Amino acid sequence: MREQEEFHEIMIIGGGICGLATALGLHRKGIKSVVLERSETLRNTGAGINIYLNGWHALDHLGVGDQLRAKSIHITDEEGLRCVKRRDLIDTLANSLPAESIRFGCRVVAIETDPTTSFPIVHVADGRILKTKVLIGCDGSNSIVARTLGLKPQNLLQTQVVQGLTSYPNGHGLSNSFLHVWGDKLLVGRIPADEKSVFWFVTQEFNPKDLETRDDLRLVRDRTTEALRDYPARVIEMVKHCDIKTLSLHPIRYHAPWHLAFSDISKGTMTVAGDATHQMDPSMAQGGCSALEDAVVLARCLSREMPVGLSGCRASDQEMLERVGGALRRYARERRWRVVILSTKSFLSGSLLCASWLKRFIFFVIFSKILGGRFSHTQYDCGLR
Ligand SMILES: Cc1cc2nc3c(=O)[nH]c(=O)nc-3n(C[C@H](O)[C@H](O)[C@H](O)COP(=O)(O)OP(=O)(O)OC[C@H]3O[C@@H](n4cnc5c(N)ncnc54)[C@H](O)[C@@H]3O)c2cc1C
């Protein structure tokens, strides 16, 4: 097959929460970009996602906060928290982008640097070669961009999460609160997504056998129900009657906070954002929120260096390399300690499940005395700079 060449000034790899939000952040600054997504359609399946105040600030800066608030309910016992259906979040971000911003069926298989210009060159599985001036990797946990940048891979936390949505056609009748019920090495969370549906998750010790059969959703549901046998009937019924299409099992992986503190997430005109940089344990519900923050900060840093938009083509290649390189270094600096704190808190919180009482006490002290309390990070507004 003859190889074809294409050029896009800013290329984002990955059309998940972070890639779509980054494209939207740039679009709102008048900067055009293209998102390459390996799937043939948006990956908008799955259950709910808890969004804290810091995530809502980011969504407001992206201009979609009110649309999503209208589709979710305020949880009264945790400040700013709302649970949004993943489908609503992904669809809202995607629908706010100009037509043709997302290229589906583009699986990136290799990235190299042009020896003459020093700009990135992207190879797609179908043989196409795409040239770009700025490459942003929002390609999730197994990021090819992160590998190209030489970042360390994630570790496994020895826990797994099953999550799903359950619909109650006549209303669930629950209060607007986030329920956590701890058992023996088991944690169940339940939060209303709207008046008729409830998002839930069950965190357990990691079991490699469950991973082998994770595509058999009925088996996942039945095993989860069995693990909950000592829980109240209402909790068991919720899992038993979930919408099977929303069910998923995830082994929990995390980028070690101590690696994040010292990694360089930008090189030349290439960088990473979202899970590609900082996958975290979901117990603090900060992976998606911080991916949205990355998007806002990245768009702001790039737009400040490129006030005419890269499409103005006024800058020489050398000037472009320096300005974009500087913008990406500023983005990396601004995000570094924020994500170190979020991932440290997530790591400690995720480790609680299997920890002894002594370890739990030590974690509690670290949280409250050193890291500023369990929810202090949710007050952060990524747009205030
Ligand atoms: C069980 C669980 C519960 C969670 N709960 C919450 C929560 O309540 N609140 C919260 O804030 N966060 C939560 N998170 C974290 C959150 O889901 C993630 O942080 C977020 O989805 C990351 O988005 P992303 O866009 O960076 O990555 P992804 O969602 O993984 O998207 C990456 C995209 O890149 C594409 N891609 C990958 N490789 C390539 C390639 N080579 N070429 C082209 N495309 C590619 C993929 O197809 C995908 O669409 C949870 C995570 C888990 C596992």
From TrEMBL:
Keyword Iron-sulfur applies: no
What Pfam family is a match for this entry? Answer: FAD_binding_3
Superkingdom of this entry's organism?
Eukaryota
| Record InterPro entries | FAD-bd (IPR002938), FAD/NAD-bd_sf (IPR036188), MOase (IPR044560)
- Which residues belong to any copy of the FAD-binding domain? 9-72, 95-303
Family designation = Belongs to the 3-hydroxybenzoate 6-hydroxylase family.
From the Swiss-Prot or TrEMBL record, give the protein name: FAD-binding domain-containing protein
